[in-house]
Amino acid sequence: MNLILLPADCADTVTLTDRALVQHLGGVLRAAVGQTLKVGKLGGRIGQARIAALTADAVTLTDIACLTAPPPKLNLTVVLALPRPKVLRRLVLDMTAMGVQTLYLVNSYRSEKSYWQSPLVCQIDDYVREGMQQACDTVPMAVHLRTRLKPFVEDELPALLAGKQGLIAHPYAAATLHEQLPTAEPMILAIGAEGGWIDYEVALFAAQGFMPVSLGTRILRTENAVSVLCGQFLLHSHLSAAGLMAQNHR
């Protein structure tokens, strides 16, 4: 936990009673009264606060000053076939931390119906919060659930794709993701569940203008593919920003 998220409307002093947070401060960080911590207001700016009181049940923060803007999001929306519930937390946390703007969790041929009934699906907001605290961000990734793929792709996706480039990850595609990254357009990236998209689903996305892309000949597990694909966007965004700053200083 690299940042403590505060309520959006908190004033100069706030008392937090989240048990996991209090235990982390006392047991992991060994925090003490008077210590300064990095904080951020939900949906707002980042700054610092001082511990005024710390017990086994609550922490009171004071002198809250949040003046720094949160890190920018990637120009990236991810459409992800609902994965196994046991890896859902890690994937949502990682995508949030990397700065993905919006996530659509959708059904697919290889997504088991039982996945949607998992109690872990109801904890997505908690995973997003973890990702923000990891990456020192205050703006949550928007998450939407779509249990029917065909109506989503045909009826909803065209409007979402306006002004964006659509890519679908497919290990047998001729084009590579690297070839598409130089574009400045915002992107929507579709990633399949374990085993990838079936041919029918690839064709469904392709009919809406999505281009199949690959990372090469190696077939990765879903959690690895998500990290590698989104990591490529994060790296490209960082290098583009660094290049722009260098040009401005010439």
UniProtKB/TrEMBL annotation:
The Ribosomal RNA small subunit methyltransferase E methyltransferase domain, residue ranges: 72-231
Keywords: Cytoplasm, Methyltransferase, rRNA processing, S-adenosyl-L-methionine, Transferase
Catalytic EC class: transferase
Main location: cytoplasm
Cellular localization per UniProt: Cytoplasm
Pfam families in the record: Methyltrans_RNA
GO molecular function annotation: rRNA (uridine-N3-)-methyltransferase activity
E.C. number(s) listed in UniProt: 2.1.1.193
Catalytic activity: uridine(1498) in 16S rRNA + S-adenosyl-L-methionine = N(3)-methyluridine(1498) in 16S rRNA + S-adenosyl-L-homocysteine + H(+)
GO cellular component, one term: cytoplasm
Any one Gene Ontology BP term: rRNA base methylation
Job of this protein: Specifically methylates the N3 position of the uracil ring of uridine 1498 (m3U1498) in 16S rRNA. Acts on the fully assembled 30S ribosomal subunit.
Family listed: Belongs to the RNA methyltransferase RsmE family.
Protein name (Swiss-Prot/TrEMBL): Ribosomal RNA small subunit methyltransferase E
Organism whose genome encodes this protein: Faucicola atlantae
Taxonomic lineage of the native organism: Bacteria, Pseudomonadati, Pseudomonadota, Gammaproteobacteria, Moraxellales
